[in-house]
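Could you join me in thinking about how sequence relates to backbone shape in a protein? To get us started, please write out a protein record for me. Would you write everything just below, so we can both look at the same thing?
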Amino acid sequence: MLRWIALVLLLLLIGLQMKLWSGNGGMHEVDALRVSVKKQADENDRLVKRNQALSADVLDLKHGEQAVEARARTELGLIKPGETFYQVVDQPGHAGSALPPAAVSAGSP
């Protein structure tokens, strides 16, 4: 009788171990979920940093005239009245070498 109880308990232990290691919700799934959570946490950290940078940029644009002017110059190509605009154009077929800059007065057509 004691042998049968020991055998049943041993079979039960083996069955539970198999479920733990290979079944649904087992160790493989837990490891995969940990990796997934780590990737998502890294992505969240990256997005938080990006949002902080964008928030600082918005704050600069709201409260700083220099930031607005710098954006207008770089992104829109705007110049102030009385300034001279210089444009450097690469020659076709000669990448990297530039023509001498052509001066264009802000007031001339």
About this structure: Strands lie at 84-87, 102-105. Residues 80-109 form one domain. Helices lie at 2-22, 27-63, 65-76. The mean pLDDT is 81.
